[in-house]
Every structure is written in structure tokens, then in C-alpha cells.
């Protein structure tokens, strides 16, 4: 088990990049750390690898503090975004190099390299230089170097960001398979929330070096702790709409700016009032694009008319940009449901899936 306890990183004791970072990582877990560019993800990973000094806090591996250990003594292997392959060496030597430096018996090196090459389907490329490989093959060589190290913990620093979309999708599946086959523990850093949702057993969302939420992808997606997480996870991004709240007739009513819509909130969204006895005058309504659908006559209630500003056809889905006052909302609907009259189409908000966030702190009012 790997534990990060009160980890802090600052440069020159002034600029704090990571603050009070606490995380438990269980054996065999695939942990994905996701956050916007510059939030400290790579720094965190480099501290676990031993490539960056930890300013304060503890890094415990099975209870033992390894925060001052040399990288080679940490049982970790890191796969970098730019693969960090030696350009003048062929694949075999790239895989073997780390072991050669450690003066491992050549027969054992050969055995390990050939095994790693077989696992990663690289056997026919062993003589090639990195420049003669595709992006995906280079990525596999980088993973091969992690395998031959016999590491228990694999660290991935945005390993797919240099690949095109199709290959990224393929390599994502390969990395997950690699993790399962190696029976190791993986920590994977990305700013791509789709990669995060699809790979993680445990998802960690960070902003400016601080953890915003930890949970399974489903937990985080269904119950975002605040509007930052709600907007960051899920694509297209969650719509955030400022609303005024009114408390009357035993219910809570929300009104959009410019009176664009007015509706009673479902009971499961008003626990902040009924159970926590809070009565804020304003809030931010978070609603996912897939929860704004075209209104049909069977559905009663929470509907409003919008102009469709423009449409993006994505094969079987369509992204609609709706005009709301001076703002825009996004709706994602099946392409076959495209409205006929784009000037005035009626949409239905699935409010029982919406979220209400505090106007100032952004906290989910119902959690
Ligand atoms: N040696 C350094 N001295 C001062 N600041 C640094 C140093 N190295 C990194 N930083 C700063 O630390 C912050 C976090 O950097 P880091 O590379 O960890 O972010 P990241 O979340 O991995 O970003 P990205 O997704 O863009 O790779 C950034 O603001 C960066 O400018």
C-alpha cells in the first residue's frame, strides 16, 4: 500500500505547488489523477518516483517512509509523456539499458527483454530505432522499460497525449490490460477527463495542488462535490446556470436570469432546505447536456423554449447550442431528434439529475 501523507511541495519555500496532499493507494488499484494544466500533477508523480524532492510530508510504502530513497530503490517505474527513449539505440537496447547499468547478468537481461517484447507485441521491432516506430509502438517500448524493471508501482505521466485520437483510444485499452496483466499498482496522470473516467478505479481530481474529490468515476460523475468537479468531469461540460431561489407552497422554486425559465425543483434536489435548513437566495444549477432534451408532450413540467444558435452533428449524436438570455447552454441529443423549428424549440430539463451548487463556494448544496 502506498500512502501520501500531508505532502507539500514548494519552490524556494515561497511558491506552493502541492499542499496538504493526502491519498491512500491500495495494491492493484488504478488511480488516475486528473486536473487542469499546471495544477501540479506531474510534480506529484515525480515526487513519488523520487525525481523531485518532497518539501514536507511522508511517502509510505507498506508503512515505510521512502520519501528520501533514491529513485532506483523505490520499486517504481515511470512512463513519460515524451517516452524518453534513447534515439540512437534500437528497441532491444532501449529495453535492456536500465538493467545493463545495474550490471544484471546478460542472460537474465535477454530473458526479461524478450518477455517484455512478447507481452507488448514488440518482438518484430527489436532491431528498429525509435525514429522508425509509430507513436503507439514507441509508447509500448516505454512501457516495456517499466516491465523489465520488475516494478510494483507504475507511474504514467500523460502517456497518450502525443498520440492521435484513434491511437489514444487503442492505447488506453492496452494500458488497462497492461495494468491487469502486471498485477501492479498504477498511478496515471492526465488532464483528459475521458481518459480519467475510462481508466480509473479511483479518480482523484485536483485543482491548484489541492484534492477536490476522490471517488470511483461513477461516484464523481453522479455526485460532484462542487461545481468545479461537475464542470470538469463529463463531456460536453456540464451547464452552470445562475438561478434565484424562492421558498413557497412547501417547495423550492428556481428562476433563471431574465425569467428565461421558472420551475419547482424536485424534492430530491431540495434536501439542503428540508434537511439542512438552509435557504440561500441564489444558487448555480448544474445540468449536463444529456439532461437537456427535446420536449415531448408526454413530459410535464420543467420545459422552456430556446432558440438553437447552432448545431454540431457528431454522427449519431448532435450537439446543440441553445440561446439563454445572453448566455448559451449545450444540449446533447440523438441526431434523429433534431428539432424542426430551430428558432423556437422547446426543451425539457431532467431536473432530478441536476445539481445545485452554492453561488459563492461552489459546494454541492445537497451533499
Ligand atoms: N522548478 C520549478 N520552479 C518553479 N515552479 C515550477 C517548477 N517546476 C514546475 N513548476 C510549476 O509548478 C506548477 C505545476 O507544474 P506541473 O508540471 O506539476 O503541472 P501539471 O498539472 O502536470 O501540468 P500539465 O498538465 O500542463 O503538464 C506549474 O505552475 C509550474 O509552472
TrEMBL record:
CDD domains: ABC_MalK_N (cd03301). InterPro entries: AAA+_ATPase, ABC_transporter-like_ATP-bd, ABC_transporter-like_CS, ABC_transpr_MalK-like, ABC_transpr_MalK/UgpC-like, Mo/tungstate-bd_C_term_dom, NA-bd_OB-fold, OB_MalK-like. One of its GO terms (molecular function) is ATP binding. It holds the Pfam family ABC_tran. Residues 2-233 form the ABC transporter domain. Keywords: ATP-binding, Nucleotide-binding, Transport. SMART domains: AAA. This is Sn-glycerol-3-phosphate ABC transporter ATP-binding protein UgpC.
